Amino acid sequence: MLVAQPNAKPPTPRSCPALDALQTPCLLLDEVRLRANVERMRAHLTRLGVAFRPHLKTAKSLDVARIAMTAPEGPAMVSTLREAEYFARGGVRDMIYGVGIAPAKLARVSAIRAGGADLTVILDSLEQAEAVADHSSSSSDPLPVLIEVDADGHRSGVAPGDADTLLAIGRLLLAGGVSLRGVLLHAGDSYALSDPEALAAAAEAERRAAVTAAETLRAAGLPCPMVSVGSTPTARYARNLVGVTEVRAGVFMFGDLFQAGVGAVAMEDIALSVLATVIGHQRAKGWIITDAGWMALSRDRGTARQKVDQGYGVVCNLAGQPYPDLIVADTNQEHGIVALRRGSDAALPDLPVGARVRILPNHACATGAQHDCYYVLDGSGRVGAVWPRINGW
Amino acid sequence: MLVAQPNAKPPTPRSCPALDALQTPCLLLDEVRLRANVERMRAHLTRLGVAFRPHLKTAKSLDVARIAMTAPEGPAMVSTLREAEYFARGGVRDMIYGVGIAPAKLARVSAIRAGGADLTVILDSLEQAEAVADHSSSSSDPLPVLIEVDADGHRSGVAPGDADTLLAIGRLLLAGGVSLRGVLLHAGDSYALSDPEALAAAAEAERRAAVTAAETLRAAGLPCPMVSVGSTPTARYARNLVGVTEVRAGVFMFGDLFQAGVGAVAMEDIALSVLATVIGHQRAKGWIITDAGWMALSRDRGTARQKVDQGYGVVCNLAGQPYPDLIVADTNQEHGIVALRRGSDAALPDLPVGARVRILPNHACATGAQHDCYYVLDGSGRVGAVWPRINGW
Lengths: 393, 393
Description:
Two copies of one chain form a homodimer. With 393 residues, chain A is an alpha/beta fold. Chain A contains eleven helices and 17 strands. In chain A, a hairpin with a 5-residue loop joins strand 12 (314-316) and strand 13 (322-331). Chain A is elongated and about 70 Å long. The N and C termini of chain A lie close together (7 Å).
């Protein structure tokens, strides 16, 4: 299902325009912050004695993957089969496709595996297990499988205490010649928290659920070499990961305002921003209009449910420093309405038509997906490279 | 700023898979409904005696543009310069770039015009007028310009009664050798309405503001051949367009749940849907999990502010008929949580793993932008074509 953008041209990483010569809106990535975020997570997980499997769903870029992964062949996590195909072409070998497998996707999974990538699928039902077992037999490709376990009731997965279902799935898979790799959990409810103790408790609950499910399998004689957990907040706040073999996290690499609201990243570590140009004013209303609307920023309003509502993003100068109380208060498709927070007594900065600003996004995964490349800022604040990224399925 | 998706392959319109063989999630477009929506708008505007300039920001597809436009060369409206470049390559000649022009974009505008397209820009300030006049002189490309006028206080534009600013901009442009084409308005506040009389009143207010501004220019001896208004709701509800020369509208072509909530389209006319596959269940909670999360549907939650909150979309069977009270209640990046509306006593349909559903989107512009092509359903409900679309700037 790969369809070209009809006006697509090859990326030209050698022609890197200056920051003030870029056409706007576009996506900026601060490489220094990116590397520091990765280094911090890696050191933290090394201290906890577990492997790190970066989730590539936020970046969808081979250049970023090579910084985030511990080795060029992985491990890595993907959210779409298009990502798996793209990263496999880039030499990544050890991947998990982190969305419950649909039977109609199995042929595509095997095609990716036939190209040399060790792609693992996840599932949480007997129906899926049967489909995977049938496919493994008929295709002579014994698929590696992780059973998805529900860490906190937020989405998919077998309940960790539901030994009957866990064992029935495990036995069905083994009988079908599938390679049962273990269990996988994602503590998605941690996104709703913001207290460090509550986040540490969520990480411990995720660990305990994982260990419970793994022990259930092992006690019945089923293999469970991998115990994979992760989310950016629980990865950041985990204090003890005994029994866990690997941690997954993705959005922490870039950071965003939502994760800053959770407390999983610091505002000054956010590596992603949207470059925008001022195109007008409604001075009586205190509005500055820019060319970065929701199409460039995404429709994500996740911070609306947090203590500090950041509108559609925090407005910064070209050096990346936030203007006091200045946010994108509203958006249309290609217009951003920049204004002071309600009740603020800060001064509206003087930003004439043509002035440029950087906007920190609510949600890096959503904002990134609106763009097809990153303009990468080096340590001097100049554009040192252009890194393509993919989208779609 | 054209950067290829690194895994992009050419579109293969000759290989059109059956609906149940498509990889999901993907975007379906009902060609019969699309053509009917266009025909209805065209007939309505013909009755009102005005030209129709379709806004291509929703579709971003040359195939759709050729159905929507009254002639292969236009007129048409675009929201990005990448659209202008793409449609110009496709033979569209008469285009307006509908976002207030930034000085740094003028060279790109002239490059598009040098290729043969008559691309008009819009502006609402003396600063922009000065930049355009300077550019017109120095580049020997006398740019055509429309002055943006504020219909209803929702975004950009000179107030229609602000004769001083209108005339100052007009005179500055003329003195600079710019081709002053007239005025342009967009009644964006109509999106917040839902009563037919209020929508008709919004259309009449948009018309009056346009005529006021046009008469101000003409009374001072300035040219104003074009009087351009439009939004899907006001286009639909306008009863009298005397003094207006053209109407713009875009989202009506596809329709969506938000516009259905406004009353600008009928639910059964919505031509766009996302095809999704069931990948799991949480039966105790009444959840059906699909592979269409916010990445496939967009983060748009516009119906949350309307009388009927449609969640992230209305769930339909493969024929496009909604299941009673079944909506996408929540989403993660690649997961949709399908459930009955709160308080519904309808029965949850039996949708096993692998079953397929179609999801009507909240906002066609936002949902479309998450995809790179349309799988086009012909009258028999089969995929008759694959139409590429563009994104980005």
